[in-house]
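User: I'll paste a sequence; please echo it back and then give the predicted structure.

Assistant: Echoing your sequence first, then the prediction.
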Amino acid sequence: MNDTPNKPADAAPAASVDPFDPDSFKKAPDIMTAEAAPAADSPDGAPAGAKVPEVKLIVFDMGHVFVDFEWEEVCKGFYTRSGHTRDEFKKVLAYVGGLGYERGTITTENFLSELNSKLGITLTLEEFTTLWNATFRENAEMAKLLQELSLKYPLYLLSNTNEIHYKHLQDSFNVARHFKELILSYQVGMAKPDRGIYEIVLKRSGLAAEHCLFVDDLPHNVQAAQSVGMHAIQFKGIDDLRQQLAALGVTV
């Protein structure tokens, strides 16, 4: 695992290309740029000063919220190992990213087989796992906040992820310790911003959408949560998050 120090907790999310977001592999013009996600128009979708219903459940994304990583470095590991250029690997990544690994529609073994075929190499499962999991680290300040919040509110994890990433993150950081429920895209067969994955949150919680708050770094995921009636905050750093939580009456 990469020993790069944690970035400051209040830094803007580093990448719009995100292995937790299946569609991000296919984004134009350059799927491997590390541009900050644009801000959502409204963090909660409610007029300023409007009274909002009580928050009874908080749902968190994982990547670039309380787990940080450098996707560009992960990509570099693959194209360096395979002898391809960055642009050549970008085309391969666009193809394999559309196979549905984060939606659980392809196994790890078949995903690796497709990747090897497109790159013309023979990565072992061990080699793939090392490259695929490079640079992950837990954001210590956010982990502390999650633990504080969990003493007062039920927390759910709603993450676009895949078998290898989640196993590594759980084994390395015990990410599940924060949450009462885990809604992982590869296990439920759908991914944000699919409407159905937010409806799973509502079904499991038994709560009306207006009592649920969702936190994610990507604006289209925030907007999808708002479309089902949930409060939603685009994550831009821990200080901003604390301010937006307080505005919704959420305190620790």
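Strands lie at 57-60, 67-68, 137-138, 155-159, 181-184, 212-216, 231-234. The chain has a mean pLDDT of 86.
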